[in-house]
From TrEMBL:
Enzyme Commission code: 2.1.1.192
Protein species of origin: Paenibacillus albiflavus
Presence of keyword Magnesium: no
The protein's name: Probable dual-specificity RNA methyltransferase RlmN
Cofactor annotation: [4Fe-4S] cluster
Active site per database record: E94, C339
C-alpha cells in the first residue's frame, strides 16, 4: 500500500471519540465527523462546514479519504451494476450493486486477490496481493450509497462475498461490520448482512462468540473430504469433519442457521449420489439451508454448468431429505458479474500492455 496516513473510514465511532479527546477537541466532534462521513457522505474535509478550520486542518494532516478510482462500470439488463475500482496502489477490486424486489444489495471485496485457490473461481487467479483495510471495505459501501443517493434509494443489505476470504482478514472485517451496523452510521440491520467464508475453522468459532445477528454463509461445494479437497484446497488445512464440528458450535452458540453455498458443476459434484451424501451430512445441522449456485463459466477454468434438469433434481433430493434448498437467481451474467472475472480481465490487459512496452523498450535498446 502507498498511503502512509490512515483512512478516515478506518476508525469506528469509539475510535473517533478517542481521537478527538487526544487532540483536545470537544467530545461531540466525534459524532459530527461520523455524521459527515456516513450520513452526509462527503468526500473532502473542507465540506465538513460545522467543524472549525483548525480541526479540519488536523484531519487533513492526519487522515486521507480512500481512493476508489472508477476504472469500469457495467450495468446489466437486470439492474445489476458492477464496478472495477483502482486503489491508491494501482491494485484493482470489484464491487457489485444488485437490485432486488426488497431493495438494493451490495457485494463487497475484502482482499486484493485470494489465496484460497478454489479451482472453479476467478478470484484466485493470480493469488493474493494484500488485505484491504477496514476503510477500503467501507468505502465500497459509501460509493454504492452515493450511486443510490441520486435515485433516492439506499443500501438495504450487504453480502461479504466479493474477492477474497473475509475470515483471513478478520479484524478489518469486524471493524467494517461494526461501522455498517452503527445507528449513527449507515445503520444497516444486522440480519441484512451476510458474511461468506470458505471454511476458516478457527474464525468460525471466533465469529460465533462475537454475539451478533449477522448471517453466516459457508462455501461447501462438495459432500465429502476427497472431492472438497480437489475443488477447494482450503479443505486440506481445515478438513471437512472439523468444519462440520465448527458449524455445530456456531449453531449451538448462536441459535442461527447457516447457509451452505453449493456451486453445481456439470458431472463433478451435481449427481444424485452427491445430493444424497450432502443430505446425510447436513442432517447433523437441522437449521441449515443450501443455496444451489449454477457455476459461472470462467474462461481460465474448465467447469461447465449443470443442466437445468439436474439442478432441479439435486434440489428435490435435498428437500426429500428435509434439507431446505433454494436455487440462486442469476444476476449480472451479461456483464461478467461472477466474482473476480472483471478484475482478472483487467489484470490480463495490464500485463499485455506491460509486455508490449517492454518489447518496444527492448527493441529500442537493440
Amino acid at each position: 500500500m502507498t498511503n502512509v496516513k490512515p483512512y478516515v473510514y478506518d476508525l469506528t465511532l469509539e475510535e473517533w471519540q478517542n481521537w478527538v479527546k487526544e487532540n483536545s477537541e470537544p467530545a461531540f466532534r466525534a459524532g459530527q465527523i461520523f455524521d459527515w462521513l456516513y450520513v452526509k457522505r462527503v468526500s473532502d474535509f473542507d465540506q465538513m462546514t460545522n467543524l472549525s478550520k483548525g480541526l479540519r486542518d488536523k484531519l487533513q494532516a492526519q487522515f486521507e479519504f480512500v481512493t476508489l478510482t472508477e476504472v469500469a462500470k457495467y450495468e446489466s439488463k437486470d439492474g445489476t451494476v458492477k464496478f472495477l475500482f483502482e486503489l491508491s496502489d494501482k491494485n484493482a477490486i470489484e464491487t457489485v450493486v444488485m437490485k432486488h424486489g426488497y431493495g438494493n444489495s451490495v457485494c463487497v471485496t475484502t482482499q486484493v486477490g485470494c489465496r484460497i485457490g478454489c479451482t472453479f473461481c476467478a478470484s484466485t487467479l493470480g493469488g493474493l496481493m494484500r488485505d484491504l483495510t477496514a476503510g477500503e471495505i467501507i468505502a465500497q459501501i459509501v460509493k454504492a450509497q452515493q450511486l443510490l443517493d441520486s435515485k433516492n434509494e439506499r443500501v438495504s443489505s450487504i453480502v461479504v462475498m466479493g474477492i477474497g476470504e473475509p475470515f483471513e482478514n478478520y479484524d478489518a472485517l469486524m471493524k467494517f461490520l461494526k461501522v455498517m451496523i452503527h445507528p449513527k452510521g449507515l445503520n444497516i440491520g444486522q440480519r441484512h448482512i451476510t458474511v461468506s467464508t470458505s471454511g476458516i475453522v478457527p474464525n468460525i468459532y471466533r465469529f460465533a462468540d462475537e454475539d451478533t445477528q449477522i448471517n453466516l454463509a459457508i462455501s461447501i461445494h462438495a459432500p465429502n473430504d476427497a472431492l472438497r479437497s480437489k475443488l477447494m484446497p482450503v479443505n486440506k488445512r481445515f478438513p471437512f469433519a472439523d468444519l462440520i464440528e465448527a458449524c455445530k458450535y456456531y449453531t449451538g452458540k448462536t441459535g442461527r442457521r447457516i447457509t451452505f453455498e453449493y456451486a453445481l458443476m456439470g458431472t463433478v459434484n451435481d449427481q444424485a449420489e452427491h445430493a444424497e451424501e450432502l443430505s446425510q451430512v447436513l442432517k447433523q445441522l437441522p437449521m441449515s439451508h443450501v443455496n444451489l449456485i449454477p457455476v459461472n463459466y470462467v474462461q481460465e477454468r474448465k467447469f461447465v454448468r449443470t443442466s437445468r434438469d439436474d439442478i432441479f433434481n439435486f434440489q428435490r433430493i435435498l428437500e426429500k431429505n428435509r434439507i431446505n434448498a433454494t436455487i440462486r437467481r442469476e444476476q449480472g451474467s451479461d456483464i461478467a458479474a461472477a466474482c473476480g472475472q472483471l478484475r482478472a480481465k483487467h489484470e490480463n490487459q495490464k500485463k499485455r500492455r506491460s509486455n508490449e512496452v517492454t518489447t518496444i523498450e527492448d527493441g529500442k535498446s537493440n
